[in-house]
Amino acid sequence: MSPTAGTAAGTALDVAGVGKDFRGLRALSDVDFRVGEGEILGIIGPNGAGKTTLFNVICGALRPDAGRVVFGGRDITGASPDRIARAGMVRTFQLMRPFGSMSVLENVSLAAQHRRQSRHGLRKRSLDVVERVGLGEWAHCGATELPTAGLKRLELARALAMRPKVLLLDEVLAGLVPAEREPVLDLLAALREEDGTTLLFIEHIMAAVMRLSDRVLVLDQGRVLAAGSAEEVTSDPRVIEAYLGEEPGGDDD
Ligand SMILES: Nc1ncnc2c1ncn2[C@@H]1O[C@H](COP(=O)(O)OP(=O)(O)O)[C@@H](O)[C@H]1O
Ligand SMILES: [Mg+2]
User: Fold this and answer.
1) I need a labelling partner for 212 at 20 to 30 A (CA). Which of 37, 174, 179, 242 fits?
2) Predicted local confidence at residue 118, as pLDDT
3) For position 79, which CATH number holds?
4) Above pLDDT 70, what percent of the chain?
5) Any idea where the ABC transporter domain is (predicted)?
């Protein structure tokens, strides 16, 4: 059993000793951390560090080879992504894949159906979410008509339509110009302030990590290299070294 964190708020997510291999490649190794309810955890690390794999394990897309994932006090290790989403833990994807033949609103409604609710509730919820992410004017446009920034917002809207208690964001700012990032950051901050949503966000844009995170987890070669405040981890020599050593496709042990 891992030691108790001793925080006032409850633990939203407990990742304990998680390991994942891909045919001999150790993608995750003994990954341990907790996230408190309403906390915002930034996750950083060089390319190939295992960040997306970690999300896949947490949200049920991949079964870990070792360890367990406890969400809201329940062991969900190995549960299906659908069950986990229904229980209130939802993730966005790094590569967006909306249904191109459907409108923005229909894409969001489809996601909203994951949570059982009345037809009226579903439509209202979907419209609210579309407005909230700033896609109101695009609601009835085809999803494929959206520019990159719009697709990112749609991906976020689909996740929000499922009313997550815990939301995992995989590089939601990538591909956005600075002016487009601000409203997304404001929205994420509001999700915590107004809805009490717990956030885990993988991000390369350090200004965003510094602004939003209560705590930052640094992954490198599948391991937790450091954890602490944004200031602490970014001044940690091991973290600086991990980033300096980053090279495209570099995967040596
Ligand atoms: N489905 C998979 N099959 C085989 N190898 C994978 C798979 N997914 C990820 N990997 C490998 O696991 C490592 C971690 O990848 P990933 O989690 O995508 O890293 P990050 O998101 O930090 O860039 C990389 O070496 C990657 O090539
Ligand atoms: Mg990734």
Assistant:
1) 242
2) 78
3) 3.40.50.300
4) 91
5) 13-246
Asked whether residue 184 is domain-assigned, the answer is no
pLDDT in tens, 69-108: 999 999 999 999 999 999 999 999 766 677 778 999 999 9
| Distance from residue 156's CA to the centre of ligand 1 (Å) | 23
14 and 55 together in one domain:
yes
Q: What is the pLDDT of residues 156-192, one digit of tens each?
A: 999 999 999 999 999 999 888 999 999 999 999 999 9
Domain co-membership, 77 together with 94? no
Q: Give the per-residue SS3 of the chain.
A: CCCCCCCCCCEEEEEEEEEEEECCEEEEEEEEEEEECCCEEEEECCCCCCHHHHHHHHCCCCCCCEEEEEECCEECCCCCHHHHHHHCEEECCCCCCCCCCCEHHHHHHHHHCCCCCCHHHHHHHHHHHHHHCCCHHHCCCEHHHCCHHHHHHHHHHHHHCCCCCEEEEECCCCCCCHHHHHHHHHHHHHHHHHHCCEEEEECCCHHHHHHHCCEEEEEECCEEEEEECHHHHHCCHHHHHHHHCCCCCCCCC
Distance, CA 154 to ligand 1 centroid (Å)?
25
Query: Do 105 and 226 have their domain in common?
Result: no
pLDDT at 2 > cutoff 70: no
Pocket test for ligand 1, best of 47, 51, 53 (most atoms within 8 A of CB): 53
pLDDT, residue 247, reads 52
Q: Are residues 65 and 120 in the same domain?
A: no
Question: Which of 22, 92, 168, 247 gets mutated to test ligand 1 (max ligand atoms within 8 A of its CB)?
Answer: 22
Query: What's the confidence (pLDDT) of residue 253?
Result: 37
